[in-house]
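wait is this the right file?? whatever heres the structure
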């Protein structure tokens, strides 16, 4: 697993690298001191599983930095790790596609548990900033869809959605479905369009709202390909 830490303070990057190591397994940590370097690292390492992005960076910073990551690497999960923790900033970050928002003031255990939650496919926001529909207030609502076909997706795209809901990264989806990364990215774009959302975070939430079951999506796809 590859995790990119984007922060201008070397001590913070070192601390986050140590925390990430507690997740266990074979983890490679990449570091960048600003958004430009982070984007370049993401371009070079397209198999990054998670980006930990600070908002207070030199050069491009704040929500515009998040927007740039989302524009250039839409399938790459981004988590904001910031000294800010007000509800407005948190919800705006989630609305713009962040998979989570972790305050730097959080305890070590809280940060590690939040990362585990995010890697499992959930969205993490600090309790004091959480709202029932954080980040989806302005998102278009779908009223009915219980299958990939009803969403206008192919069986294969339904599989990609199911694995996304199960917290799989693009790299893991490629491995499980035996597909090229470019193909998975194309299917992921189709899933986002079908759900009328702009990020993986919103896709997981929207699919849950519709009552879509990942196991049912996988079973239907297997039957289609049988």
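ok assuming it is, sequence goes like this
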């Amino acid at each position: 697993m590859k995790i990119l830490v984007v922060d201008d303070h070397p001590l913070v990057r070192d601390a986050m690298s140590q925390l990430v190591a507690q997740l266990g397994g074979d983890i490679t940590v990449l570091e960048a001191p600003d958004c430009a370097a982070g984007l370049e690292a993401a371009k070079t390492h397209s198999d990054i599983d998670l980006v930990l992005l600070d908002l207070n960076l030199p050069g491009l910073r704040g929500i515009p930095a998040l927007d740039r990551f989302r524009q250039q690497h839409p399938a790459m999960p981004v988590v904001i790790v910031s000294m800010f923790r007000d509800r407005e900033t948190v919800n705006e970050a989630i609305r713009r596609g962040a998979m989570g928002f972790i305050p730097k003031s959080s305890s070590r255990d809280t940060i590690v548990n939040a990362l585990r939650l995010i890697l499992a496919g959930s969205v993490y926001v600090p309790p004091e900033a959480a709202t029932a529909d954080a980040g989806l207030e302005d998102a278009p609502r779908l009223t009915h869809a219980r299958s990939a076909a009803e969403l206008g997706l192919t069986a294969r795209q339904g599989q990609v959605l199911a694995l996304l809901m199960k917290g799989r990264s693009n790299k893991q989806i490629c491995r499980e479905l035996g597909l090229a990364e470019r193909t998975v990215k194309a299917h992921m774009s189709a899933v986002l369009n079908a759900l009328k959302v702009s990020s993986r975070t919103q896709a997981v939430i929207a699919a849950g709202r519709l009552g879509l079951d990942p196991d049912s999506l996988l079973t239907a796809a297997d039957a289609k390909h049988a």
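The longest helix spans residues 181-195. so i think its the right one actually
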